[in-house]
Every structure is written in structure tokens, then in C-alpha cells.
TrEMBL record:
GO MF annotation terms: formate transmembrane transporter activity
Keyword Chloroplast: no
Taxonomy of the source species: Bacteria, Bacillati, Bacillota, Bacilli, Bacillales
Domain of life: Bacteria
Keywords assigned by UniProt, alphabetized: Membrane, Transmembrane, Transmembrane helix, Transport
Subcellular location: Membrane
Family the entry assigns: Belongs to the FNT transporter (TC 1.A.16) family.
Classification via InterPro entries: Aquaporin-like (IPR023271), For/NO2_transpt (IPR000292)
Transmembrane residue ranges: 38-60, 72-94, 115-138, 164-186, 198-220, 240-263
Protein name: Formate/nitrite transporter
Membrane is among the record's keywords: yes
Pfam assignment, any one: Form_Nir_trans
GO cellular component: plasma membrane
Length: 280
């Protein structure tokens, strides 16, 4: 028991409480103005790109003899800073919204048109935020020389070289984990809990090598501008597959599963009033 007599888990919400809070988060997102979607989307794209840039800077110079598995392990350990910034500082990330808006839709609190509208404008914001960090990284000569350039191009080439169906399947796994990270963050009532809730699932998706559409909005254009053997047509194809897979992973495997399990459509409005609304 807690020294004051409360539960040891008083800083954590139950899965049913998380589901109700996720619904309220989706409702709040659906009400955002286009301007706020674009600005917060830009920030989220930049935050995820910064996480990927952190990853590239620390993994590119790891000796090959240590193995790619070790590189992925280290990259996975540092990449989560991007989603931490999205959740705690506040931003609109497409992949997170692929869970929160659909669960609000399942609870009959948000219309399908509002889901699509949010995804469109947040995607635009995420893209411009991502390529802004790409521009900064290149102009600051952070990825333009030596192992950093070679590794950045190699990572991007591996992504666009995947068969389309493989990209979709990989992206499903990615956003299953990413939206679970958002889910766990909603379950924590303090910053430390949110950090740990985010860190482990994001660590896993990066170390595994799954495809994240917003992260790829940074790495693929960066590789193109560095002179990598990638066309914009390949970039668009890869990003479309990652978008589809991410949408399936977030909507079907998290939003739909937990809506079916926990959301009482007749009581969701009253249950969802507890807690604070996340800006993930």
C-alpha cells in the first residue's frame, strides 16, 4: 500500500479508463482548427525527425564488426525522444491519431469525415516538419559526410527496396507498437510514467525495423537530397504503403480491439470526463 493509504498503482489508469480517455482525446483532436492541425502537425513531424536524426548520428559510426543488431539496439534506445516530445510537449502525430480518432469514431463521438479531415491536415503538417529537420540536418552538415551520409542513404534505400506488401505488413507492426506507446502514456498520470510507457514500445519498433510513415518522411527525402539512388516515385510508393499499414495497425489492432472490449457506447461520454485530455 501507498504510505498515505492509497494504492501503489494510483498513478496508473486501468485499461477501461485509458479507453475512455483515448475517446476524449480523439474528440478534442476532431475539434481542432485547420491552423492548429497544421502547426501541431509540423511540430510532431519535426520531433519525430529529430528522434531519427539522433538515431542516425549515434549509430552511423558504430563499427560494422559490432553487428547491425547492436546498431538497431542503440538506435531504438534513442529514437523514442521524438514521441516523448509529441506526447509531453504537445503535438499532432498522424500515427497516434490513427488510434485516438478511430476509437472516438467507434464510440460514436466523432464522424468519419472528421477522422479523414484530421489525418489529411496532420499529414501535411507532419511532412513539412519532417523535411524542415531534413533541411536543417543537411545545411548543418550533420549527415553530409563519411559514415553519416553512407548510413543515412543505406537506411533509406533499404526502406524503398521493400516489396509493397512487405512495407504494409511492416507498417502494421510499427503502428501497433506506436499506438500502444500512446495508450500506455495515457495510462500514466505523471511524466516519468509517460516516458517509460512511451520508451519501451518505440524502442521495440525501431530495433525491429518496422516502417513508420512520418519517420520515413524524414529519412527518404534526406537520402534523396544527399544524392542517394532513390526517386521521388519510389518515395511516394513507400510512404503510401507505410501510411496504409500504419492506419491498419493503429485502427484495427488497437482502436477497434479496445473499443470492442472497453467502450460502452451508452456510457462513454460520462466515463470519459475523468482525467485530462492528451495532446498526442
Amino acid at each position: 500500500m501507498h504510505p498515505r493509504g492509497g494504492s501503489e498503482l494510483e498513478n496508473f489508469r486501468s485499461p477501461a479508463e485509458i479507453a475512455a480517455l483515448a475517446v476524449e482525446s480523439g474528440v478534442a483532436k476532431a475539434k481542432l482548427s485547420i491552423g492548429k492541425m497544421l502547426v501541431l502537425g509540423f511540430l510532431a513531424g519535426a520531433f519525430i525527425a529529430l528522434g531519427f536524426l539522433f538515431d542516425l548520428r549515434v549509430t552511423a559510426t558504430i563499427p560494422k564488426a559490432w553487428g547491425d543488431g547492436f546498431r538497431f539496439l542503440i538506435g531504438g534506445a534513442v529514437f523514442p525522444v521524438g514521441l516523448m516530445l509529441v506526447v509531453i510537449a504537445g503535438a499532432e502525430l498522424l500515427t497516434g491519431n490513427m488510434m485516438t480518432l478511430p476509437i472516438a469514431f467507434h464510440a460514436r463521438r466523432v464522424r468519419l469525415g472528421a477522422v479523414i479531415k484530421n489525418w489529411i491536415f496532420v499529414t501535411i503538417g507532419n511532412f513539412f516538419g519532417s523535411i524542415f529537420i531534413s533541411y536543417m540536418a543537411i545545411e548543418a552538415h550533420l549527415l553530409t559526410t563519411g559514415d553519416w551520409k553512407k548510413w543515412t542513404i543505406g537506411v533509406a534505400v533499404a526502406k524503398v527496396s521493400l516489396p509493397y506488401w512487405s512495407t504494409i505488413i511492416s507498417a502494421i507492426g510499427c503502428n501497433w507498437l506506436v499506438t500502444l506507446a500512446v495508450w500506455l502514456a495515457l495510462g500514466a498520470k505523471d511524466v516519468i510514467g509517460k516516458i517509460f510507457g512511451i520508451w519501451f514500445p518505440i524502442f521495440a519498433f525501431v530495433a525491429i525495423g518496422f516502417q513508420h510513415v512520418v519517420a520515413n518522411m524524414f529519412i527518404i527525402p534526406t537520402a534523396i537530397w544527399l544524392g542517394g539512388p532513390i526517386t521521388w516515385g519510389q518515395a511516394i510508393t513507400e510512404l503510401s504503403g507505410a501510411f496504409i499499414g500504419n492506419a491498419i495497425g493503429g485502427w484495427l489492432f488497437v482502436a477497434s480491439a479496445y473499443a470492442y472490449t472497453y467502450i460502452n457506447k451508452t456510457a462513454s461520454q460520462s466515463e470519459g470526463k475523468t482525467g485530462t485530455i492528451s495532446s498526442t
